[in-house]
């Protein structure tokens, strides 16, 4: 038997080589494709595991604070803690921390907003013209926010420079009836600008407090105005008054610097300092001063007759808000002191004074310093944002009518308020009274807290300012392709993270003396919980997190969100126009989508199962087609052997043995080719996997050759030895019509090459269906890949983790599906080649009767096109069925994908017909006609 098999393979080298190449392509494709699938799975799950790391896995909020919108969309909104001022008791935090499996339970309490002065030292030295006797520097002011889209023009400030002698009032003593000046003179204050605060130049008064008569309880930074006075000394220096803890004094300086300030609301929050250090490493983010420790205690304001506590705080190094002040600087030569003998007339005269602009500067305020502080007064709290849902899935932020009176408390008269008090509001404002003062003991850099993967970051608004990019081209153009950031307005859409952090213990002491009753009992706004032994994203870790979250919910009754495996997802939000020039914007804001990593891992596992199944099926079909063709080609030889006495089992063994030898050789070739080919395609194929190609190739060859071998063993010698025209000949005895010829006659006479090519498919329906099925496998794989792509960009879609992973998956899947389609195309080409070989005499007759080479090529192409349409329709249909399983629904986009797949199938099969059509030109017409 073995010598016979070897002799046959050696004597029929061409056919053996063709079968060998078929098996080699199939097994190599199988090995590389399974390697590609494994690579995809490892890359995806590895990426998910790396990106699933976050500061915490469970977010706990007071009962009833999770909105219906969050429940419906399975998302956690940015600024999820804004508007939540307590609701969780310290006892509940201790209960959570004591649960098995809880590594860190970090509570945070949002306290409220207070106005903080943002200072800037404006150096005017280089703008002073030392040749002038008197000059006025006008400081035009424009407040900017929202990437410059919001702007508020403010009243100008003024700085007066003179070479004449100036005397300033000694404000640390005296009354409005008797005021002593720095030159020793004494004047009745009421006679000088009606306030006793006027300076004197050569004895003539200059009104300094020029906006006094416009002072009100609701005066914003845009309304304040002042005039500072500098005397140019003979040595070129600058003499001016300055405020010190001991009162006003005179100072001489080399530079003319003016202190300017404006109000910016800042948010105060309290944390458990030890838990926060373990959660994000806050103690390692200190850049100046020190972390709040046991020695930092609540103290009393020494000069106050009432109890006004001083609260130790940590301050952010630089403010978060996109809020700046633009100065337009101009100089006016003066021949006399600034006019006006009353504040009102002085203000009117100065407002009308203009000059050529010399310079423009835009500043954002100086950094905070250790030892500084602010008065927690007026102290406010704001609510959350409400949304309307739009049909396209976007949201509209609902504006709130907030009166500027909401910024006022009974004793804020004369204190400047932020300019945004008149801007559009999206949050309600309420006053909570006065909570004393703060003292900055340390500065921290939010960028130095422990960094977690941005693809899976959870709401960490304590240290991250929310950003929103333009959601459409118009909005992106308006924002200059930069993100919109909080503008410092507590009632604005984007809320600012806490600027000041204090200890929960100190807050408890403060609340015990001044805080509202509700805040004393349940001051905590949220608890962020890190679960122990969660490393990566596997089933065991997911179960640990689920159990902890379930226990927290059952034991406390609080709202619990599992943020483990979450990832930011863009959410379109429409924001109404502001009152300072910002137009209506469509924003793309990152909301946290829960459970994204689980959905990605699930989708990847399904994809792996589908690709493995498709690889096995396409390999089996390709091999079966090749072996059936070999048996058909040898039917006369096998019939002769049977007639000579070979039993059926020996014929069966001979056919299957030849296929087995070819399978073993192809498997060995795959071992050598899989590694280099995988490296070329960027797919890792281990030697252990490559060696498996030998038994796989043998098994596939045996399975593919089983039916053809059984068919050969059952063949009758008389039928195999009968000289009969092949299945593709028109000329057949009228008394012996075959079924295919009968079908053709009933179908009518074909017209032209295309019609004849399509009718030829009916003559060998089994072979036609086999070629169409092989192509359908590849088209199915391509359609399913489209379905998976839609799954990653639909249900779990649009999340950063999903986008990052799907890019890696699609690169590998494209290789896998391309190879599958290639195998299908080779199967179609093999079918067309066999058709040409079986009908070679018929085709030679057509050529002899005048058919051109182009007409014959169109005939073959028509057959390929017909097979392609059948395979494309079947593959697209199966692909849509797979999409329904993978995605859960069939969308319009998937229908378009299926339509494209049908067209692609027809084109691929038509292109596959090129090689058989070229072989057609090499047919020996004369020899075939002579044999016929």
TrEMBL record:
Record's subcellular location: Cell membrane
InterPro entries registered for this protein in UniProt: ABC3_permease_C, Macrolide_Exporter_MacB
Domain ABC3 transporter permease C-terminal positions: 610-715
A molecular function (GO) term: transmembrane transporter activity
Gene Ontology, cellular component aspect: plasma membrane
Signal sequence segment: none
Keywords: Cell membrane, Membrane, Transmembrane, Transmembrane helix
Record carries keyword NAD: no
Membrane-spanning residues: 609-631, 651-674, 686-710, 769-795, 815-834, 855-888, 894-920
Residue spans of biased composition, Low complexity class: 719-729
Region (Disordered): 463-491, 719-751
Topology in the lipid bilayer: Multi-pass membrane protein
Family per similarity comment: Belongs to the ABC-4 integral membrane protein family.
Protein name: ABC3 transporter permease C-terminal domain-containing protein
